[in-house]
Design a protein that fits this description.
single chain; DNA binding; globular; Dihydrofolate Reductase, subunit A; binds NADP nicotinamide-adenine-dinucleotide phosphate; alpha/beta; nine-stranded mixed beta sheet; RibDG_C
Length: 215
């Protein structure tokens, strides 16, 4: 049975997974890079900033789980581009000609457009669909492998609320953002449905894994 997974999903102590005021020059708004400093310091994450090297400890061990056995990603319009990207017919995402997905990637948007085939195996498909329907489409495209829910927080919250997430890796970053987009609203008692493990890393972040209990 394939699974629906979330990886490397970073949130602040006060539960925000992105900042306020997202813009072309500030993809995560006033949060800047603070939610992902732990990630870009790792061997897995260093290439995101065009760096080489990186740490090979606990943070990297978790970060590396992002890729294996993933056959498709689902993301929200807010991850794919800054507010208003739908008005730019040439926008193909933040990641340049060869995005780091290398699978079909389904972008949930109320303003869908034709699919875009990128270099390196990523094809963006645009869907105006409920979470369960989007998951069905992603599963069909995933070649028998798992589907990753790539964020942002609005989409993660919606998939959790719909009971569609089997595995979730969260990274609690010891910062207080104060504003932005929250993950947990409306998800009261979510923990009852998951086996949860927690690992503190020397970098200061805390990794939490949620694995869905058998029904
Ligand atoms: N902390 C992390 O690890 C992490 C991970 C990934 C991304 N991010 C950050 O999170 C931010 C984006 O998150 P967000 O919560 O603002 O937005 P998001 O979750 O990426 O996308 C939400 C938007 O997607 C569209 N959408 C969602 N569900 C839909 C559905 N069922 N049908 C049709 N359209 C649907 C809607 O946009 P429209 O109505 O405009 O179409 C909605 O406003 C970015 O700053 C990104 O960098 C953080």
């Amino acid at each position: 049975m394939t699974r629906t997974r979330i990886h490397n999903f970073s949130l602040s102590l006060d539960g925000f997974a992105t900042g306020a005021d997202q813009a072309p020059e500030a993809p995560m708004g006033h949060a800047g890079q603070r939610l992902h400093e732990w990630l870009v310091a790792t061997r897995f994450g260093a290439p995101i900033l065009g760096r080489r090297g990186g740490t090979a400890g606990v943070d990297d061990a978790f970060a590396q789980q992002h890729e294996p056995d993933i056959g498709a990603e689902i993301m929200g319009a807010g991850k794919f581009g800054p507010p208003g990207w739908q008005d730019d017919a040439d926008w193909t995402g933040w990641w340049g000609p060869n995005p780091p997905f290398h699978t079909p990637a389904f972008v949930l948007t109320h303003r869908p457009r034709p699919s875009i085939e990128m270099e390196g195996g990523t094809t963006f498909h645009f869907l105006d669909a409920a979470p369960a329907e989007a998951l069905q489409a992603a599963r069909a495209a995933a070649g028998g492998r798992d589907v990753r829910i790539g964020g942002g927080p609005t989409v993660v919250r919606d998939f959790l609320a719909a009971g569609l997430v089997d595995h979730m890796h969260l990274v609690l970053v010891p910062i207080v953002l104060g504003r932005g987009v929250r993950v947990w609203d409306g998800l009261e008692a979510l923990e009852e449905h998951y086996r949860i493990e927690v690992v503190s890393a020397p970098s200061g972040v805390t990794h939490l894994t949620f694995d869905r209990k058998a029904p």
